[in-house]
Prior knowledge:
Layout: H1 3-12, E1 17-22, H2 28-41, E2 48-51, H3 60-73, E3 77-83, H4 89-101, E4 106-110, H5 131-139, E5 148-153, H6 164-176, E6 181-186, H7 190-202, E7 209-213, H8 219-229, H9 235-243, H10 248-268, E8 273-277, H11 283-295
Parallel strand pairs: 1-2, 1-8, 2-3, 3-4, 4-5, 5-6, 6-7, 7-8
Amino acid sequence: MKITDLLRFARERAEPTFSFEFFPPKTPEGERALFETVDALRPLGPAYVSVTYGAGGSTRQKTVELVKRLKRESEVEAMAHVTCVGASRDEIAQVLDEVADAGIQNVLALRGDPPRGQATFVPHPEGFAYASDLVAFIRGRPERWRFCVGAAAYPEGHVETRDLVRDLAHLGIKVAAGVDFLVTQLFFDNARYFGFVDRARAAGIGLPIIPGIMPLTNVDQVERFTALCGASIPATLQAAMEVRRTDPDGARELGVAYAALQCADLLRRGAPGIHFYTLNRSPSTRAIVAALRASEPWRNRQ
């Protein structure tokens, strides 16, 4: 089923969607752990799950294999990430053909990050320079590629484009190429999300904008992620993190509490759902979604 249909059905029921993002494990043990995580999260009723590419597109085939297996075995709708990194048009077409043959209807079209050790993104000579080019390529291909196409959005601006006006113009080009819904980069200040949504609506972008949330599990790790993607950490959260830098249990407890409050506020104020960056772990995400389903903050939308 297409994610736009899942979003529409949820909206008709006045409920949000919850979705989970995973990355391809490097070992058979990691793969077994991933499916154990999926099994643990499945009772929470995810609308869909997605699988990323590794850095620089390094796990392209593993991503396709995992998405196909998730679609086949987990009874949960799956979305494949597709990036421009290190791939020609023909190679991207092969990936999309394989995804379509597996009955997968949803893709997240991304430019992708530069490979490790490379400071800037360099497009493949026979590939694409921008996510908007990839979206247009998908939309211009045969009817069998009738994918529901998602794309990324950046409430604080892309790490390479900190000018919010310019970044929004880039998003408009991407949406015009044929995007169906947007998923945001992680953020820790809800004002960033709602300010971005207001700017997008004023610019004529009416697509669903799903906030992306990463529960804090490790202080050093979340600082690395935010440095890479350009997300900011509010001063109050940074102070609370510093106190728990060498306390793993305390850091996880803080992450669950903070993300649960953050998600409740997002849903109460009208966000269509939450996309969780799980880091292939279930306990924190499971606790957050269970608390949200128990309290149903969306019933008291502002």
